[in-house]
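fyi for ur records
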Amino acid sequence: MATTVYERENCHSNSATFGTGLTLFPFFFFCGSESVWENMARMCVKTKRLDVATVCLGNMGNARAARALRQAQQEPELDAKVACLAIQLGMNVSALMAS
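which gave:
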């Protein structure tokens, strides 16, 4: 799937929505901006999509967070795994768990 220069330069499009997480994956795959991957990883915390978050962390180059998420996969509860991801991204875990 080839992208044009216009698509790569405009990867911060406001018309893009997160959807199920995988709908925009090919779109973001060609975007080299670390901030896009970080924002998508933050959306993964809210939607609890850890599979997409793993890809985001890899593209961010955040090896420490990726390792922590792999270790958290041994936890039985999904919320514990999501909290681990949120901590690695510097998000407020207590506010996320209250909603």
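The first helix runs from residue 5 to 9. thats all i got for now
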